[in-house]
Design a protein that fits this description.
Elements lengths: L7 H9 L23 E12 L2 E12 L3 E5 L6 H8 L7 E6 L2 E3 L3 H5 L2 E4 L11 H10 L5 H15 L14 H12 L6 E5 L7 H16 L3 E6 L2 H7 L2 E6 L2 E6 L1 H8 L3 E6 L3 H8 L5 E5 L2 E6 L2 H8 L6 E5 L3 H9 L6
Parallel strand pairs: 3-8, 3-9, 6-7, 7-8
Antiparallel strand pairs: 1-2, 1-4, 4-5, 9-10, 11-13, 11-14, 12-13
Helix pairs in contact: 4-5, 5-6, 6-7, 9-12
Length: 340
């Protein structure tokens, strides 16, 4: 079944009609944020946001340098999406100050948004249009003419590795291809800052690695990325720095490996298959710290072989020795796993 093709009337309607998608909120012609910016792309200073009696973001402060990938790491309900909405000027903070690309938000959010590309958590592509048509339509939301959009579409298709799918309907694409198209669409206005909300949620491992490769390509171009995620491996692989969020608070900030070294600093022995509370007395003398989560006992030990020797011969136990990671940091700081 063929896609319904765009005709000139479609394009005129898109060009002159109101923009219904909340993010864009402007019908003015394309305009770039000034290039003469400081090295700080985004700054949150003491930002608080509540809904009713619930504090969602609690006196949050962080800065994002131009050209880096900055991660907002936390479980569902940690405030990541609210932070992204405030950054885009879609939600107003109750207190504090936000600066994006050198301008105050929400006061001048429309100007800031002209320099931002957004990759939402869920793809909101037009299923009946082709890959090329989706890019063409999205350019109109930034006041780009057909000629301007067509000039950049080939490079966007190349970035997304969708050159051979340019005339395919979105409904014919795999999940990974759709995600790549959503990323390419966010680049139509050549943004300085790209905000990505859980970009690999729901993707299989192969598609996830493809997205990671594309994100690294953007960083190599000098783009600034703010990445919200609850995938620890994703944060470790991609982020130059990150902020660990717990109930809207910044509980730790820094480079991934620096956070691991500061809060963990040793290898981790995971022990399954027995009552973890019964094993505490056996492993405690050989561990710097012990955490229990569900049926798993986490031993942070300078010499894991001493722990292994102590448990040798106990039936049913399974031991896994691995390097410390960000999940251990989160468990250490909050007392719970990030999936909760």
């Amino acid at each position: 079944m063929l896609s319904r093709k765009l005709d000139p009337e479609d394009l005129r309607r898109i060009e002159t009609g109101p923009i219904e998608r909340e993010f864009h909120g402007q019908t003015s012609a394309k305009s770039s944020v000034p290039d003469s910016l400081s090295t700080v792309a985004v700054d949150f200073a003491g930002v608080t946001k509540s809904y009713g009696n619930k504090v969602v973001v609690d006196e949050l402060s962080f800065s994002v340098a131009s050209g880096e990938c900055f991660g907002l790491l936390g479980p569902n309900g940690a405030g990541k999406s609210t932070i992204a909405r405030m950054l885009l000027g879609m939600t107003c903070p109750d207190a504090g100050a936000i600066t994006v690309l050198g301008v105050p938000v929400p006061a001048r959010a429309r100007l800031a948004r002209r320099g931002i590309g957004v990759v939402p958590q869920f793809d909101n592509l037009d299923q009946e249009f082709t890959v090329r048509e989706n890019l063409l339509v999205f350019g109109r939301y930034f006041g780009m003419s057909t000629r301007e959009s067509e000039a950049v579409i080939p490079s966007l298709l190349e970035f997304a590795r969708l050159e051979r799918k340019a005339d395919a309907r979105v409904s014919e694409l795999s999940g990974g291809m759709k995600r790549c198209l959503t990323m390419a669409r966010a680049l139509i206005n050549d943004p300085q800052l790209i905000v990505m909300d859980e970009p690999t949620t729901g993707l299989d491992p192969h598609a996830r690695h493809l997205i990671w490769e594309r994100l690294r390509a953007l960083l190599a171009r000098g783009k600034t990325i703010i990445l919200t995620t609850h995938f620890m491996e994703e944060a470790e692989r991609l982020c130059d720095r990150l902020c660990v969020l717990e109930r809207g608070r910044n509980i730790a900030e820094g480079r991934p490996q620096a956070l691991i070294d500061e809060h963990i600093g040793c290898q981790v022995m995971e022990i399954y298959g027995g009552d973890p509370h019964e094993l505490l007395s056996l492993v405690k003398p050989h561990s710097q710290r012990i955490e229990v989560s569900g049926e798993t006992l986490y031993c942070y030990a300078p010499d894991p072989e001493q722990v292994r020797t102590q448990l040798q011969g106990r039936a049913g136990l399974r031991l896994l020795l691995r390097p410390a990671n960000l999940e251990d940091v989160f468990l250490r700081l909050t007392g719970r796993e990030i999936e909760e």
